[in-house]
Amino acid sequence: MSVEAREKRQPWILLSPALTAVGLLLFVPLVFIVVYSFWLRTATGADQAGFYLDNWNEALTDPFYRDILLGTLRIAAITTIACAFMGYPAAYFIARSRGNKALLLLLLMLPFWISYIIRTMSWINILGVSGAVNWALLNLGIVSEPVQMLYNEPTVILGLVHFLLPFMVLNVYVALEGIDVSLEDAACSLGSTRWQAFREVTLPLSLPGLAAGGLLCFVLSAGTYITPLVLGGPTDAMFANLVFEAIITQLNWPLGSALSLMLLAVLGALVLIYNHYLGMGQLMKGLG
Q1: Residues 199-218: pLDDT tens digits?
Q2: Which of 30, 141, 181, 221 has its CA 20 to 30 A from that of 134?
Q3: Helices (H) and strands (E) in the chain, counts
Q4: Is residue 226 within a helix (H) or strand (E), and if so which, with residue range?
Q5: Is the confidence at residue 285, as pLDDT, over 70?
Q6: 56, 135 contact by CB (below 8 A)
Q7: pTM value?
């Protein structure tokens, strides 16, 4: 084998362990899900192998699934907007602080040291009938009986914001760190106020980080399962809960596979749109 041929093969040899892992852990299971989505669940409860469109026809035409999907996207959008409004000031404060950035970033990362499920269930002790908020309201005489604050859509959104806010802050912080602070000073020296300098210089330059955080928050919130299960009521199920019910409760793997691919297609389309206009580089910076 010539030297040139060996040099061409060397990168693939070095990448082979990673490519093998990605293939076995991502693409092979995805192929199984695609195949399962065309199988048929018979009246006896057995899965009949073949190429049937019944599951896709039900998933795409049943208004029940459509409404749940639209509701999931709406909740994800509200969560993303809330994270943006709350996360940007926090990220700006960390990026412009002097001498204590490491401590602030450490405090921001602390929630990741605690299980997501435990953090979600902690809201039951805060907002529950016998939780901290109701205890304070009763002892202050503001209410005469406990207020029901759990198991509704606003609580689900609250739990999602609690979970996803650090992702937004980190992505915006990375974008702000890449902006030269002297640009704001230069704008002010030319007659701009601090607000005008922020609006005309800093905010436009930090929009890629805001978009990256928004994409991450939207995708993670749209695909969540635990938060609506723990904090939501019977009418607050999100699309991932339908997938769980179809596969685990009803043991209907073909329909569950079709539903999961339906959600994957919607979120994948959003990722492709983001990648087309902004690229994945900024998102990788935030995750790194």
Answers
A1: 888 888 888 889 989 999 99
A2: 221
A3: 15, 2
A4: helix 226-231
A5: no
A6: no
A7: 0.88
Helix H or strand E encompassing 144: none
Asked whether residue 284 carries a pLDDT value surpassing 90, the answer given is no
- Tell me, what amino acid is at 140? L
Sorted by sequence, the CB contacts under 8 Å of residue 45 that are 6+ apart come out as 251
Helix, strand, coil content of the chain in percent (nearest 5): 75, 0, 20
Evaluate whether 186 touches 102 at the Cβ level (below 8 Å).
no
Distance set, CA 134 to CA 55, 144, 227 (Å): 46, 10, 21
Structure-block tokens of residue 51? 């190429």
Tally Cβ neighbours within 10 Å of residue 45. Answer: 9
Cβ proximity of 184 and 225 under 8 Å: no
Size of the chain, expressed as the number of residues it contains: 288
Q: 63-96 and 101-109 are packed helices; what angle lies between their axes, rounded to 10 degrees?
A: 160
